[in-house]
Amino acid sequence: MSLDPALALTLALVLAAIFATAAIAKLKAMSAFVGVVENYRLLPPPLVTPAAWALPPVELLAALGLLFPPTRPFAALVVAALLLLFALAIGINLARGRDRIDCGCFVGLLRQRLSWGLVGRNLVLALAGLVLTLDRGASRPLAVLDAVTVLAAVLCLLLLYAAVSRLFGVAPTPLKQAS
To answer: What range(s) does the Methylamine utilisation protein MauE domain occupy (predicted)?
Structure first.
């Protein structure tokens, strides 16, 4: 399957921006991020710190890989796998009734409580990554107008992502009915 090169570049740039921002935020607040990973209660204590330290470089390398067509399919697969893993980790904690913890997506930049909306967001982003893994390269050369279109689309999608993320981060927790 070949995607239109403008669409492929748009998806790659949006995912790269999200992952690079998240990785840099985690690296800047590493002690807080270690606490976030620990708070998920999914890893044995000896693995929490190594996992927390390993994740940001992997995210950053995946973001960089998305920028180059030869490495894009593999980087997109890594991104999709990470997003599915994040969705699973959030889902497990929500099933346990643990929704009042920070997701850790952008430690230090944006605090977001766990929610099914975050699971959905990660699944949509994972789908975008999976679509990029199927791309077999440009079916046509990029034109000058494509650059304008890609830039506008990337900016709009990142603004939409930020708005939705902010909404999930400040959404009130539903009151539980007394039984």
So the answer is: 6-132
